[in-house]
Design a protein that fits this description.
Distance between the termini: 6 Å
CATH class: Mainly Beta
Number of domains: 1
Number of strands: 8
Strand order of the largest sheet: 1-8-3-6
CATH topology: Jelly Rolls
Helix content: under 10%
Shape: globular
Number of helices: 0
Order of helices and strands: EEEEEEEE
CATH architecture: Sandwich
Structural class: mainly beta
Length: 81
C-alpha cells in the first residue's frame, strides 16, 4: 500500500480556533510559530505547543487548535491508499 501525505499550513490570529475531524487518517499538528492549545475529543489532556513542537492526534473524533498568540500550524495527514 502507498501512503499519501497532505500538508497544510494554517495561520491563526490570537484567539482563533481551527477544528477538524480525524476520520481514521494519521494527523500530526506542528506549531510553526507562536503558541497554540490543542485538544481532542474523548481526551482530557490539554496540550500546549510552542514553535517547533508537534502533537500526534490519536482519537478518530474532533480535534481543536486555538491560537494563544498569533500563530501558524502545519497539519500533516497520512492516508493509506
Amino acid at each position: 500500500m502507498n501512503n499519501t501525505v497532505s500538508e497544510v499550513q494554517i495561520r491563526l490570529r490570537k484567539g482563533a480556533l481551527w477544528t477538524a475531524l480525524k476520520p481514521g487518517a494519521a494527523l500530526l499538528v506542528r506549531c510553526a510559530d507562536g503558541l497554540v492549545w490543542v485538544t481532542e475529543q474523548n481526551d482530557s489532556r490539554d496540550i500546549v505547543l510552542r514553535a517547533g513542537q508537534q502533537f500526534v492526534v490519536e482519537s478518530d473524533g474532533l480535534v481543536a487548535v486555538q491560537a494563544l498568540t498569533d500563530a501558524a500550524i502545519i497539519t500533516t495527514r497520512r492516508k493509506k491508499v
